[in-house]
Write a structure and sequence with these properties.
This protein is mainly alpha-helical. The chain is built from 17 helices and two strands. It is elongated, with a radius of gyration of 24 Å. One iron/sulfur cluster (SF4) binds next to helix 16 and helix 17.
Length: 391
């Protein structure tokens, strides 16, 4: 067992962040820079007297682009009046939507996306099968989280991400009315993973999720106690209210003003640090420092996928359950759980069960092996079960 000290934790934290920043910068250069940001809708110049050709010239649209946007059959259609295709507003909407989809397509590194999904399926599947029965020691958990940080974050970059599928879909639809089919497919895949195996994608595959998680674990000894300061479990009613309020605000601003309020502070940009401004860098640094003391603050307080995934988690086939026939009410699982999930599961009075990140800590500390991560139906503890508990 290694001796832990606050100084070691601080040093490891600094070394980890430095490694992520330096290696991600190198990785981004190797992949070659396709911009990973969303296109902003274009301001268009239009008047009733214009032909389609004039309209194209005024707005820098090529003939093939005009053909695609207006579904033209023949070249002579370029001489038709633009007003034949709708009112100014309808045409602007049509063009902006089409351009947004084209730009969206062009910002994607498709090769990287295919490799990343293949890596997600194989790595997450492997971890799921491996950890299903076996104990996950604290050091093994850290190594797995570091491995995921390296593969999904540093090597394969920030895009796509579970959060991006929700955030960018809302922003794109709010600004241009467009729905980008590949993103909806990715979101469906992520939600399917949640349906099948709880928040496994967040637990072991999300770039920012695993980074926050490993930072939190760096500040824990082998008994799941904080090494530096205290680790706080924020009440779920507060974190979830903030998260819901933030998603409503994000959606309203995207629809009303076309602005992506996450973009300047997006923590996924830790994997493309050259795109993080001073304000964004400050926010991300603060978030990562906070991760030493609070479990996954971004996931619990802000992440749009965190919220959507939490809703789908309610119908997940695989989840944590307790066999109360063998449970001796020692509440070691509750104390070791990094958030308030086990507390909510064990106590009948708590209604909403917070996000469970399938970390297996509760199962691994249980002295009677009463906790399972399986398809077993979750039951309520018998009345008075914990009254005799020493804690
Ligand atoms: S909740 Fe956390 S782990 Fe899940 S997508 Fe959001 S940032 Fe990633
Ligand atoms: S300790 Fe158990 S209940 Fe808590 S987050 Fe981890 S797996 Fe979920």
């Amino acid at each position: 067992m290694t001796k832990s000290s606050p100084l070691t934790t601080i040093s490891m934290f600094i070394a980890l962040i430095a490694a992520v920043v330096i290696l991600s910068t190198i990785s981004e250069k190797i992949w070659g820079g396709k911009p990973e940001t969303l296109p902003e809708p274009t301001q268009l110049s239009i008047s009733e007297e214009m032909t389609l050709k004039d309209f194209g010239q005024a707005n820098g649209l090529t003939n093939p682009a005009l053909k695609e946007i207006f579904s033209l059959q023949q070249k002579s259609d370029l001489q038709k009046s633009v007003s034949e295709y709708g009112t100014d507003d309808q045409i602007k909407f049509l063009v902006i939507k089409k351009l947004a989809l084209v730009a969206e397509h062009e910002t994607k590194n498709w090769k990287k996306i295919v490799i990343k999904f293949a890596a997600w399926f194989s790595v997450l599947g492997g971890i799921f099968l491996l950890f299903r029965k076996q104990k996950v020691s604290p050091s093994r958990r850290k190594i797995t989280l570091l491995f995921s940080t390296l593969i999904f974050g540093i090597v394969l970059g920030a895009d796509p991400s579970p959060m991006g599928t929700v955030k960018d879909a809302i922003h794109l639809f709010g600004t241009s009315g467009a729905i980008f089919p590949p993103r909806m497919i990715a979101l469906t895949v992520f939600l399917l993973i949640v349906f099948l195996a709880n928040k496994y994608i967040c637990s072991w595959g999300c770039q920012v999720g695993v980074l926050q998680d490993v930072i939190f674990r760096l500040n824990q000894n082998d008994k799941y106690k904080a090494i530096l300061g205290n680790q706080i479990k924020l009440p779920f009613v507060i974190t979830n209210s903030v998260r819901i309020g933030f998603l409503v605000l994000f959606t309203l601003v995207a629809f009303l003003w076309g602005t992506d309020i996450i973009e300047p502070f997006d923590p996924f940009k830790i994997y493309k640090p050259l795109h993080l401004g001073i304000t964004g860098g400050g926010f991300v640094a603060g978030l990562l420092i906070l991760s030493l003391f609070v479990y996954r603050p971004w996931c619990h307080l802000f992440c749009p996928f965190g919220l959507v995934g939490w809703i789908v988690e309610k119908i997940s086939l695989t989840k944590v359950s307790v066999a109360y026939e063998t449970c001796i009410a020692c509440r070691k699982c509750e104390s070791a759980c990094p958030s308030t999930v086990m507390s909510a599961i064990l106590h009948r009075d708590k209604k909403a069960i917070p996000d469970c990140f399938s970390c297996y800590v509760c199962r691994d500390v249980c002295p009677t092996e009463s906790i399972q991560f399986s398809t077993r139906k979750r039951s309520l503890p018998p009345v008075g079960h914990f009254d005799k508990s020493a804690n």
